[in-house]
Each structure stands twice: as structure tokens, then as C-alpha cells.
Design goal:
Blueprint: E1 4-6, E2 15-16, E3 23-24, E4 26-28, H1 43-48, H2 57-69, H3 72-98, H4 103-136
Antiparallel strand pairs: 1-4, 2-3
Helix pairs in contact: 3-4
Bound molecules: zinc ion.
Zinc ion binds at residues 17, 19-20, 22, 42, 44-45.
């Protein structure tokens, strides 16, 4: 759990969350960091990650610059993979919570999670294919 607060008067385009890269108006409010050293962090990720996982401002800025410089398909592929990694983390957390839940509900939820995962795997496969085509084409 990371403390986050909404940026006052935040206006789109928002900065990207340091974990899942979703644009967000929320920023970390880590006590041990000076105001200028905070990074953007969405509310979902603030619940999933710990303060020790938060990149430094320098690392976050460098990774954002690198992300913006990637060629389109690689960027899309990379974003899909990041989204999937994020999703996988959420699924893992969800599965963790399911431990101890009774049979029927657990089964239905697992089927649902499996469906979502299959969709994501197809998506990343396609993105990787496009990225490869682009790479080979150059
Ligand atoms: Zn996030």
C-alpha cells in the first residue's frame, strides 16, 4: 500500500503511472521523499505495490523518456506486455484472495480469470508479431 494523493488542479494529459503506465492524476505521497521526488502512481497500483517498489524520480523519468522514443509497434507491444504483466499481478493478487473461499464461487471466479488471461495472451502474441514484422522490415 502506497500513500497517493490527487494532484490539485490536475489536467489531462496526465503523467503515466510508474507501474502500469496508465495516465493518472494521482501521485505518490511518500513521507521519506521530498515533494519534487514523488512520481505518478494510479490508485489501483497504490493498493498493489509497496513503497520499496516505487522507482526513484530519476529512474521513472528515464523510463518514460525511453517509452516515448520507442517506435510505434514496439511501443504498443511493450505497453501491451506491461499491461499484461500488470494484469497478471492483479490476477495473482485476486487468486491469493480466493484461498479459503468455498468451492462454487472459487470455480466460477477461476473460469473467469482464465478467460481474461487467454484474451490477454492472444493480444500480446499479436503485438509481438507486429513488433517482429516491424523489426524485420527495417
Ligand atoms: Zn498503475
Amino acid at each position: 500500500m502506497i500513500r497517493v494523493e490527487i494532484e490539485p488542479q490536475a489536467e489531462a494529459p496526465y503523467e503515466s503511472c510508474c507501474f502500469c503506465h496508465t495516465p493518472t492524476a494521482y501521485w505518490t505521497a511518500i513521507v521519506a521523499r521530498k515533494p519534487g521526488a514523488q512520481v505518478a502512481c494510479c490508485q489501483d497500483c497504490s493498493k498493489l505495490y509497496k513503497v520499496k517498489d516505487v522507482p526513484t524520480k530519476e529512474d521513472w523519468c528515464a523510463s518514460e523518456r525511453a517509452r516515448r522514443q520507442r517506435v510505434p509497434h514496439f511501443r504498443i507491444a511493450a505497453e501491451d506486455i506491461e499491461a499484461i504483466a500488470h494484469r497478471a499481478f492483479q490476477l495473482e493478487t485476486a487468486l491469493e484472495k480466493l484461498r479459503g473461499v468455498k468451492g462454487g464461487v472459487k470455480m466460477a471466479t477461476l473460469v473467469l480469470l482464465a478467460d481474461v488471461s487467454r484474451g490477454l495472451i492472444r493480444k500480446v502474441g499479436k503485438a509481438a508479431e507486429e513488433a517482429t514484422k516491424e523489426f524485420v522490415g527495417k
